[in-house]
Amino acid sequence: MEFTAKQIAEFIQGRVEGNENAIVSTFAKIEEGKPGAISFLSNPKYTHYLYETKSSVVLVNDDLQLEKPVSTTLIRVANAYESVAQLLQLYEKMKPRKSGIDPLASIAPTAKVADNCYVGAFAVIGEGAIVGEGSQIYPHAVVGDGVSIGKECVLYPNVTVYQGCKLGNNVTLHAGAVIGSDGFGFAPNADGYDKIPQIGIVVIEDNVEIGANTCIDRSTMGATVIRKGVKLDNLIQVAHNVEIGSNTVMAAQCGVAGSTKVGQWCMFGGQVGMAGHITIADQTHVGAQAGITNTVKAPGQTIIGSPAWDAKGFMKSAAVFRRLPDMYQKINELQRQIEELKSK
Length: 344
Known about the structure:
- The protein is α/β, with parallel strands linked by helices.
- It is built from four helices and 40 strands.
- The strands form six sheets. The chain has a twelve-stranded mixed β-sheet.
- The longest helix is centred in the last third of the chain and has 20 residues, at 324-343.
- It is flat and about 95 Å long.
């Protein structure tokens, strides 16, 4: 579909500079712009592309100061990044949706699949499972016995949801995600280890998105809980009995050990590791590859390092660490001078 710059500006509450009748029908990165495309500029590092891009329309922040004329039409908005996200969401909603049940799908007689659902070839829906209205189950996905899936959920190919787990509305599980696999529970004995049965479930609340090949383990008892609005990247491990607070986001390869409680609106960089049986306060921001070994009590902190601690203190210490070889030489020299003074 095609839209004019004026129509786009009205939708995102922006202001047009240039040809308000400029037509766009696709998206492009500003450095790869082409006629008929809309791009955006939010990172100052990419500003120089604005003066050479071929895109017909570019979203920019209100406070952008032009250093020279541009050939493209600009739409000024309060936040270009948020505005392009709005447009991409609109574009996604306009794409045709799959519907209907493929004859090669396997649906148990006692399962309930609501209207307007899509179930792809070789997908499996187990006994007593419930799939809410408008949900999409892609090929080779497995919905176990007694699983409950809300409205407008999407399970991409090869997703597995183990028995008894519960998904709210508007939950997206990307390819290969595993929900409800056994928690890592073993009791040592003289001959090895006895498996501790994991009899709990996983509960995922509304508006959660979980990346490809991420694993969320079922609880030993009770539930592992992912609260509403959580966004988990690819290749994340969430262990048994963990609770992740609402609107928390985690980048790829994070790991959360058992029974840890993560607060609301937290942000975790890639490869962050969290020890078990600790609590992370609300609005904690954690730098990439940090190792959190103890409870974070005060909300709103930014921490980094392994073991993780206050980011400012970490950076100051890192600056000293780089100077350690020189400091070591100076200390040795001072020691030598002290010994000489003592000998005299």
